[in-house]
Design brief:
The protein is mainly beta. It has a single domain, classed as Neuraminidase. The protein is built from 2 helices and 18 strands. The strands form 5 sheets. A 4-stranded antiparallel β-sheet has the order 2-1-18-17. Strands 3-4-5-6 form a 4-stranded antiparallel β-sheet, with no helix packed on it. Strands 9-10-11-12 form a 4-stranded antiparallel β-sheet, with no helix packed on it. A hairpin with a 5-residue loop joins strand 13 and strand 14 (about 200). The longest helix is centred in the first third of the chain and has 13 residues, at about 55-70. The radius of gyration is 18 Å and the shape is globular. The N and C termini lie close together (about 5 Å).
């Protein structure tokens, strides 16, 4: 059963409420239309796996075995270390550039509105470790164009400069899971507020939503592994008069 978690952030105060009512999607296409052949990828570049992935059941079995090991380094499927194919998340910045987080050779690809690739990267060593494409799990972009990449099974989120060439900040400790203010456990989603504060769904392992300041200092959390009824996985933002509403998609 799907649940929704509403997070209210106003004047530095964060509160949470679990809503039991399921989320209903409107019928029809909502007025949207498919743009054929969007985006345009240069020759030799691709999203996720170059070759066909393993069947879903086999991928899930391998992923479950990796999680049972605590997300230790060395997990892989024999296909270049990839366990999951394709795109893991999308974000849009203030200039309408589209950031595609994917499990391929370039973890972050940036496109203009017409689908032209204008930047790619995040494949270098970042704070002592290169991102394992199989562990990449979405990301976000802040109001200054800085990019955040979630490396879920390494229990960390890294912040990069707008050109993806400089490491700026890390949330969590690389390859160490935990429940305290400095550790994460299989983080799954992120939202960056206008004031720079960072909201993380520390979902798969800790079942909590965590609020950090713009420098990565822990402020507070909602939920925990033992008390939360469901696993927060993604987080979305929308503006209101007195603050920001954050809505988490969850899975029980």
């Amino acid at each position: 059963m799907r649940r929704a978690v509403l997070m209210m952030v106003s004047a530095g105060l964060m509160s949470a409420a679990f809503v039991a009512k399921p989320t209903w999607l409107a019928e029809g296409d909502g007025g949207y239309r498919l743009v054929p052949n969007w985006p345009t990828l240069p020759a030799g570049m691709y999203f996720g796996l170059k070759d066909a992935p393993l069947p879903p059941a086999e991928r899930e079995a391998l992923a479950a075995a990796r999680r049972a090991r605590g997300g230790a380094a060395g997990g892989g499927s024999g296909q270049g270390g990839q366990l999951q194919p394709g795109i893991s998340g999308v974000a849009i910045d203030a200039r309408d550039h589209i950031y595609v987080f994917n499990r391929g050779v370039k973890p972050v690809m940036v496109f203009d509105r017409d689908g032209n690739l204008i930047l790619s990267g995040a494949d270098q060593e970042i704070n002592g470790k290169a991102i394992n494409p199989s562990w990449q799990h979405s990301g976000g972009v802040d109001w200054d164009g800085n990019v955040y990449v979630i490396e879920r099974d390494a229990h960390r989120i890294v912040k990069l400069s707008p050109k993806l060439d400089a490491f700026l900040l890390q949330l969590g400790v690389t390859n160490e899971k935990g429940t305290d203010a400095t550790h994460l456990n299989l983080p799954s989603g992120i939202a960056i507020l206008r004031n720079g504060n960072i909201v993380v769904t520390d979902g798969y392992g800790n079942n909590r939503v965590v609020l950090f300041d713009k420098n990565g200092k822990f402020i507070k959390q909602a939920g925990n592994r033992t008390s939360s009824p469901s696993t927060p996985r993604r987080i979305f933002t929308s503006s209101i008069v007195k603050g920001t509403v954050l809505k988490c998609s969850t899975r029980t």
